[in-house]
Amino acid sequence: MSDPDLLYSDVEDDLRASVRDLLADRCEPAAVIAMYDGDRSLVDGLWKALAAEMGLAGLLVPEERGGVGASAREAAVVLEELGRAVAPVPFLTSAVIASAVLLDAEGDLLAALASGERTAALAVPLSTAPDDAIPAARADAGGRLTGAFTSVAGALEADVLLVPAANGESVGVYAVPASAASIRPVVSLDMTRQLADVTVDGAAGELVVADGERAVRRALQAGAALLASEQVGVARWCLDTTVAYLNERRQFGRVVGGFQALKHRLADLYTGVESANAAARYAAVTLATGDPDASIATAVAQAFCGDLAVTAAEEAVQLHGGIGMTWEHPAHLYLKRAKADQLALGTPGVHRARLANLIDISAPRMTAEPAGVATAVDDSHLTG
Amino acid sequence: MSDPDLLYSDVEDDLRASVRDLLADRCEPAAVIAMYDGDRSLVDGLWKALAAEMGLAGLLVPEERGGVGASAREAAVVLEELGRAVAPVPFLTSAVIASAVLLDAEGDLLAALASGERTAALAVPLSTAPDDAIPAARADAGGRLTGAFTSVAGALEADVLLVPAANGESVGVYAVPASAASIRPVVSLDMTRQLADVTVDGAAGELVVADGERAVRRALQAGAALLASEQVGVARWCLDTTVAYLNERRQFGRVVGGFQALKHRLADLYTGVESANAAARYAAVTLATGDPDASIATAVAQAFCGDLAVTAAEEAVQLHGGIGMTWEHPAHLYLKRAKADQLALGTPGVHRARLANLIDISAPRMTAEPAGVATAVDDSHLTG
Amino acid sequence: MTADETAMHADLRRRVADFLAAHDPLTSDRLEFLRARYDAGLAWVSFPDGHGGLGLPRALQLEVDQLFDEAGAPDNNRLANGIGLGMAAPTILAFGTEKQKQRFLKPLWTGEEVWCQLFSEPGAGSDLAAMATRAVRDGDEWVVNGQKVWTTGAHSARFAILVARTNPDVPKHRGLSYFLCDMTVPGVDVRPLRQLTGEAEFNEVFLTDVRIPDAQRLGAEGQGWEVATATLNNERVAIGGSAGPREGGMVGVVARTWREQPHRRTPELHDRLLRLWVEAEVARLTGARLRQKLALGQPGPEGSAMKLTFARLNQQLSGLELELLGEDGLRYSDWTMVRPEVVDFTERDAGYRYLRAKGNSIEGGTSEILRNIVAERVLGLPAEPRVDKDVPWKELRK
Amino acid sequence: MTADETAMHADLRRRVADFLAAHDPLTSDRLEFLRARYDAGLAWVSFPDGHGGLGLPRALQLEVDQLFDEAGAPDNNRLANGIGLGMAAPTILAFGTEKQKQRFLKPLWTGEEVWCQLFSEPGAGSDLAAMATRAVRDGDEWVVNGQKVWTTGAHSARFAILVARTNPDVPKHRGLSYFLCDMTVPGVDVRPLRQLTGEAEFNEVFLTDVRIPDAQRLGAEGQGWEVATATLNNERVAIGGSAGPREGGMVGVVARTWREQPHRRTPELHDRLLRLWVEAEVARLTGARLRQKLALGQPGPEGSAMKLTFARLNQQLSGLELELLGEDGLRYSDWTMVRPEVVDFTERDAGYRYLRAKGNSIEGGTSEILRNIVAERVLGLPAEPRVDKDVPWKELRK
């Protein structure tokens, strides 16, 4: 078969089941909702169980660097489950993005991340797309960093920050202990991935990647490719939960899910979720195999899955009726995550614009057409 | 009441009833369908009845110029009915557009159009938007014209062509007898407004408007404003006919119109048609009163009604099922008219782009953002 | 305008002028001014003489309100008492006894008594007629038990319009009655109902052995559904009928951001914003046209179509706004639970707007129910097969 | 791939190589070659031995076809006989007697006998089971009367799969039987059915006292609905299951226009095209994933979802193409009534594509019916209330 395998292997199914079981036990909706009121007590224990006990922190790290040596295929499965539970853990920020930054780095920080002993975050705004300008601090000759970064995801959970900083001609990535930086929590649309504003003011950093721009872009690209699987997980929870609710809720003496207009919307949503699943799977597979098609696959997946997850969450809220608008019902967790994910690592519109260059569907040239008079003489018509 | 009156007056209701009655009698679907096989025998008699007998050709022409001296409000009502019947008459091209070109012209051509004695067409492609470059022939010193114009609407029904032509510095509009031009019928998507390619090769033209560009743009603007009412008529036929059919057709032992998914789609379509009606009405009213808001009103109406009529026709075909795909059923006439109308006088996208300038929602500047590294130093954060 | 109409306008303007001459809006006591305006028939001009009105066409109300506003007349608590003014008052007028009208309409209009609505229940949302709150007759009183939800302003309301089941042995639509319920009596327990925005704009209301005098029943026993339907029709007209200035509401907010923050613009967002701008402008015109129809006395279920559009546009615009804001769209103002008095989208941050707008297609009739209404009552398509129509309520599967 | 699978592949490749060595595809007589290929079990490899196959997994078919295509083997009339190959053959295999399989499968596969389908009727479209065409037993024959529509290729077909009502006294699904109908016998009148494109791609077929031997009944008397359902499931897999190369089909046509005619580009059309490009690519991947599932023996109604997407994309892309073409979109190629042998969107003008694509959401199951199927069979939502399920067909209101 020449097509890449877009299904799940038995090993992946097992991984999914383990993650799902753990989340069912230890990541209850009420505890997640409490995060919006500032109670973050859920996070540490849950992340420890996933990262260290289950070994997920090292999933993408090669065995020789202390990791599990699995691939983006497996990481995608984990992200589907984390999305499905809106789990508030720094898997994407530390185990995917920060680890990808460090992939070519010397030193043992990557191994510490892989073991779950330490957790890192890349200090860029969550909204940064892979092709965007990368914000950077200034590094002086002694490796002391000065700069400010807004809306950084994973910083609250991190004990080490990966800070891009300009040192003379290039931009390196520096490791800075979280304790040496000012990390101010931000009231976030998605409190299950709460942001922080990060300032370093002369903090000592260790240069861990010399060619920082390349490493950061690669990491954001990997993050974008795998974020699509999180979005699929979010969307699938929304679909499944809504179908289950509508199969139970009765109005007008009938099961609400039997009303045809709702059935048709759910059929369309199912079609969308299945489509997103295929798109996200392809992005993960191309990332796993180093396929040159990964750039297109990632842009396609982000362009599609970002909107689809929002649609799924919006439909879930709407089709639950009033109950879906309440604080007690978990639907809003998914709406907020889906909307924040849509803005994360580049909006779908940004990814479509990136795609345009990759597939030779170029934008129009923006010459303001002079509204004037054109001479309509076609000499070929004038022979008769 | 400060809002302009968007309803229909009693006089307008009477006008509508007369036009509708005449069309019901003399514009049967089978005869309209026959036009696609080249049988245009319907056109002349029908246009004569409408233009001369009912006096519609002179609706927009002031009384002192030989017309009825009604306004765009009444012309809009006529166009709603013509759209509703996909009537193959040159009302839009002659009584609206050509008449608007001639509004400031000397001579008695306008009066001849108003009486229905003559019928004219402006020689520009039907797709020309009011701000587009206007194609023009070349006029020599003796008023002999040379040039070619493609996809001209109304030329087949016209006995006089209004030809924009460059004469030295400006562009004038010249009247040319149809018999002096080569008018080649074009197989058109909408054969009920069949296009023609027009060539003049040294034909003698009479200069009727010196400032041609201004007159042509004003005429295209009036045409665009009133085309919206035709689109409303098309859409309303589609809605009404589909509702009637679905209230009759039975499948699965039930009236098909009782299936909720279809009910909801028709409710949305009703909402769209009512909206289009308001938009088209406002465009007509602002045109009728010379309101400075007419430019915005026209762009809004075209941006909305062009797509809405297509949606209505597409829904009509779909919801009629197989029968809507057949040549015998008139639904396809409306699909073809709606799609052609969407491309006529500027697509909805073109009108949105025009609108952007009118309402100060400017396009982004198209500087390719350099994907590089930005220094993220915010000194205001560094005081702590 | 006919000669009669012109005379009517002139007469009304004169009455307002006379009233303002006699009651200086800037120096009079607020309540005294409002009570006097009510007594002068200049409150609701379409209401009958003696009940705040003059029996004039509804279309004249706008003009009167404008004249008073321009003169700086005091406000009758319009925003906080929307349910009272928009829904309770016309229902009391239509179905109330003379005594009820005398007792309730005046303090309602002046804003002294704010009203709320006790209709929806957890098990009776779209299927409102399925409500389970019971009212049992006990002499001259009714004893009410049940739970209501989605009650705006219940914590500050003095009275409520309430529908409860008085006869469970007949089909669901026929066993309901409509009451005017004092919110200060024992057994009324109002609890905030927190929403996805973090705020508690609504309440749950638990009713435990609440006693309501039979004199506060509105309409006949068993007529509750009919009365409630009249109330809800007024709600939908209220929600759907307003057509403000161009770029009013959500579209204006997003347009402002677009203009003020050019660095955020992209070609994709540009066309999407233009599309929504066009749709918002068309909705405004459609609303204006609908109001003109209503003024001519052609009311109908068409207001439901407006509400559909309004909800969709608010949702699409607020969703686009977050994409436009990018990084700033990821930040929220405050999740602290508060009980806001007024819902105003334009003064809040974009995240709030996005979340709050989700309610626009649920509150006051879900968009799904409104599409049914348009399809059945405007287009004449068949109703859904009703399996519960002739079954006694108590036998229905809940 | 397991060791067994590897061996199976190797064996199959060897068989093909041996066959090609024995029958030079470039010099052999076309029909002889095809018949020999059938006899060698290399026609449908998943069919049983003796019926053109080897009883192998369906997933291997693609590989065999590729090997033959690469070798330049003659075509078995694949395009013109789509209904025969995709729908009639698997149904005959599943429900036919040994005699029927022997008689019909081989000439069907070689393309000597082309098939068409006589299912839909003017009064039985989405509600196919309501069909009214009657078949009355007369000795060893059935006498058939009725009208069928939407028949592709009826004018060139040798046989038809036909469903007709054999018992009007039982509910509609239970009174149907399935026949193999010779299209050359007296009483079969095929008339072109012209479509909105101007062409007559389909036919109406009028059946007047057409006699069909009982030996050409497929499945039991009264089992027609079950057999027809099997046929239609094959159709939906056939329509929805294909996933060609990137930019295959309609999206490739529009992308080419975009690239070749830069003066037509606008920012608005740019983003719309990119959206549709993304959706088309995602649909391609979804189709590939579905095929992988099917190859693993997880078939199901999911193909319906693919067909929904395919229809929508074709319609949106062809609509956008006309807007992109502007003036040229107003021109059409030819309205002359012809009877095309093959429907190929990409080789035609844009107006044809736009109009023809409207049929994609109607033919082979309307998008509305497909949404029902997805909702009920994939998501497990309740079926529509069925008022006609237990009523004898003859008593139904038509």
TrEMBL record, chains A, B:
Keywords: FAD, Flavoprotein, Oxidoreductase. GO terms for molecular function: acyl-CoA dehydrogenase activity; flavin adenine dinucleotide binding. Signal peptide: none annotated. InterPro entries: Acyl-CoA_Oxase/DH_mid-dom_sf, AcylCo_DH-like_C, AcylCo_DH/oxidase_C, AcylCoA_DH/ox_N, AcylCoA_DH/ox_N_sf, AcylCoA_DH/oxidase_NM_dom_sf. Pfam families: Acyl-CoA_dh_1, Acyl-CoA_dh_N. Residues 12-95 form the Acyl-CoA dehydrogenase/oxidase N-terminal domain. Its cofactor is FAD. Residues 211-356 form the Acyl-CoA dehydrogenase/oxidase C-terminal domain. Gene3D superfamilies: Acyl-CoA dehydrogenase/oxidase, N-terminal domain, Butyryl-CoA Dehydrogenase, subunit A, domain 2, Butyryl-CoA Dehydrogenase, subunit A, domain 3. The keyword Flavoprotein applies. It comes from the Bacteria. The keyword Oxidoreductase applies. Belongs to the acyl-CoA dehydrogenase family. This is Alkylation response protein AidB-like acyl-CoA dehydrogenase. It comes from Actinoplanes digitatis.
TrEMBL record, chains C, D:
Transmembrane segments: none annotated. Residues 15-112 form the Acyl-CoA dehydrogenase/oxidase N-terminal domain. The keyword Flavoprotein applies. Residues 116-210 form the Acyl-CoA oxidase/dehydrogenase middle domain. SUPFAM superfamilies: Acyl-CoA dehydrogenase C-terminal domain-like, Acyl-CoA dehydrogenase NM domain-like. InterPro entries: Acyl-CoA_Oxase/DH_mid-dom (IPR006091), Acyl-CoA_Oxase/DH_mid-dom_sf (IPR046373), AcylCo_DH-like_C (IPR036250), AcylCo_DH/oxidase_C (IPR009075), AcylCoA_DH/ox_N (IPR013786), AcylCoA_DH/ox_N_sf (IPR037069), AcylCoA_DH/oxidase_NM_dom_sf (IPR009100), Mycobact_Acyl-CoA_DH (IPR052161). Residues 222-379 form the Acyl-CoA dehydrogenase/oxidase C-terminal domain. One of its GO terms (cellular component) is plasma membrane. Its cofactor is FAD. It holds the Pfam family Acyl-CoA_dh_1. Keywords: FAD, Flavoprotein, Oxidoreductase. GO terms for molecular function: flavin adenine dinucleotide binding; oxidoreductase activity, acting on the CH-CH group of donors. Belongs to the acyl-CoA dehydrogenase family. This is Alkylation response protein AidB-like acyl-CoA dehydrogenase. It comes from Actinoplanes digitatis. The lineage of its organism: Bacteria, Bacillati, Actinomycetota, Actinomycetes, Micromonosporales.
